[in-house]
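Researcher: We're teaching a course module on how sequence relates to structure. For the next exercise, students receive a sequence and then see the predicted structure as C-alpha cells, so they can try to spot secondary structure elements on their own. Here is the exercise chain.
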Amino acid sequence: MWYHLFMAMTLRLSDEQTEALRRKAEAEHRSMQQVAQAAIDAYVLQPTPMPRQAVPVTELTALFSDLPPMNATEFRAEQDGYASPEAHFDAYSRHREPEDGE
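Model: And here is the predicted structure for the students to work with:
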C-alpha cells in the first residue's frame, strides 16, 4: 500500500514560469521540484480569509444606533491632528547601495 502515500501529478507551466522556476532553483541550489513544493506549501498553509458577508443597512443602523451622530468634517480635522505632514515611509530609502569594497 506504499503507493497511497504519494501522489504524482502533472503541472503545466508557461515558458516564463518554467524559466523563472529554473532560475530560482539554480540560485538556491535546489531542484525545481523542491522550489515548487516549497511554494505550494507556503501557499496552502496560509489561513484562508473569511468571505465577506453582505449586511443590510437596517441591521447596521440598529447595531450602531446607540452611537452619537458623527460630523465627517470634524472627524477629518481631528484625524489631521494625529498625522504629521513630514511623516512618510519610502521603502526605497531603506535600500542602500553597497559601498566600494563590500
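Model: If you want an answer key for the exercise: The helical segments are 15-28, 32-44, 57-63, 72-80. The CA atoms of residues 29 and 38 lie 14 Å apart.
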